[in-house]
Design brief:
By secondary structure, the protein is an alpha/beta fold. It has helices spanning 3-7, 12-26, 67-88, 106-119, 133-140, 143-151, 159-178, 191-203, 216-228, 245-255, 281-295, 308-317, 319-331, 344-360, 364-380, 383-390; strands spanning 45-46, 54-59, 95-100, 130-131, 205-210, 234-240, 262-268, 300-307, 336-338. Strand 6 (234-240), helix 10 and strand 7 form a beta-alpha-beta unit. It is elongated and about 100 Å long. The two termini are 63 Å apart. Residues 187-354 form the Novel STAND NTPase domain.
Length: 392
């Protein structure tokens, strides 16, 4: 691609701003700045008006510009900056960068260098300080400069990046939607939440087990909410079925693996089946792949949950799954949080919050009925059963 032709279509001010960004990057000088349009004494960019170390002259010309005339005009700019040096009282030497949209021949480049050495000695110490169309083309192909060229419309955005950004926006929307009806006010924080959070931070994978209605799904949601609101990192939270593991890994590999700025947090709710063990051999193999991916990457986090009985059934029925759980989740490291170990006080608090959440959503007549059921269950101390009953 001929960047010279593309730059030819820019406005003068856009080209000057573009030139400043290129020179900032190339010479590692973030102090460079430009000025408003108007008489500029030959200064399109500078790092210190009182005592500069770097001065920029930017020239955007039509591609049809006569090259001999262009070289002549650049020499006139060198004359101008020499006068500006005297006018502004610059005593220290400075470097002078010329950046132009035109191409230059070897003879033209040498003519400019020789003239600069005579008028402002040492200001252009080597060819790096004269940036023209072929130099811009080379820079545009370097990763460090691509964003600058894209921001000024000199490079088309890579279609792969466009598609990736579209997918990430979709995932962001899914994350927001997932928490649209999540109310942390009704969540009871216990020591298990802290344990689960630290396991996920350390190991990147967690299995939550417990009886029906104990809060496995809610705990996964709260963990996702904690990671989502982590101010140090960007997290996307999604919920998937185990049958979608390959889709999840494809999503991760294509959009997150090489993207250190983003993290993917995936919840697999009732991953072995909702009411009974209900996954095939292939899915169990996929779970092994999922485990391997999460423990060998820096920005993939997996939260699995299952009823304790279904987890036990799966280990009995399938030896390979038993081996996976025993070797990877229990023997090597403890990746399992068992919510059946809630204390009686924890259960009572959870029961109370479940009751309050349900009560908040009901009309007056239904509220009276619910209060009666609640008091009856409290009298019998049936907290776990009550949680399931009230949450229906």
């Amino acid at each position: 691609m001929d960047i010279g032709i593309r730059a030819d279509g820019m406005t003068t001010s856009d080209f000057e701003n573009f030139a400043i960004e290129i020179v900032k990057k190339k010479f590692k000088n973030n102090s460079l700045h430009g000025f408003k349009e108007g008489k500029d004494d030959g200064i399109d960019g500078i790092d210190d008006i009182a005592s500069p170390s770097l001065v920029i002259q930017a020239k955007r010309w039509q591609v049809t510009k006569n090259h001999t005339t262009a070289v002549k005009l650049l020499k006139e700019e060198i004359d101008k900056i020499a006068l500006t040096k005297e006018k502004y009282g610059w005593e220290a030497d400075f470097n002078y960068v010329i950046i132009t949209s035109m191409g230059l021949s070897p003879a033209g480049l040498k003519e400019i260098r020789d003239y600069a050495d005579k008028i402002i000695p040492n200001a252009i110490p080597n060819d790096d300080y004269i940036i023209f169309s072929s130099t811009l083309t080379t820079l545009s192909q370097q990763k460090a400069y691509r964003d600058i060229f894209m921001n000024y419309g000199l490079l088309e955005k890579d279609i792969t990046n466009v598609l990736r950004n579209a997918r990430l926006k979709s995932i962001e929307a899914e994350s927001r939607d997932y928490f649209s009806d999540f109310d942390a006010h009704y969540f009871v924080e216990t020591r298990f939440l802290g344990e689960a959070y630290h396991i996920l931070q350390r190991e990147h994978i967690l299995l939550i087990q417990g009886p029906a209605g104990i809060g496995k799904t809610t705990t996964c949601s709260m963990l996702g909410n904690l990671f989502l609101n982590n101010n140090e990192n960007i997290f996307d939270i999604i919920v998937r079925k185990v049958e979608d593991i390959n889709e999840v890994l494809t999503l991760y590999n294509g959009n997150y693996r090489d993207n250190e700025d983003r993290n993917l947090f995936v919840i697999f709710d009732d991953f072995l089946g909702r009411n009974k063990f209900d996954v095939g051999e292939r899915v169990l193999q996929d779970i092994r792949k999922l485990y391997s991916a999460s423990t060998n990457t820096n920005n993939l986090f997996i939260c699995l949950n299952s009823r304790t009985q279904i987890l036990q059934d799966a280990r009995i029925v399938n030896f390979e799954f038993q081996k996976l759980i025993d070797e990877n989740f229990i023997e090597n490291r403890n990746f399992i949080i068992d919510l059946s170990r809630y204390s009686e006080i924890d259960r009572a608090y959870i029961f109370r919050k479940t009751f309050e959440k349900k009560l908040h959503s009901l009309g007056d007549i239904d509220k009276l009925e619910l209060v009666g059921k609640y008091n009856n269950l409290i009298g019998k101390g049936l907290y776990s059963i009550g949680i399931t009953f009230l949450d229906q």
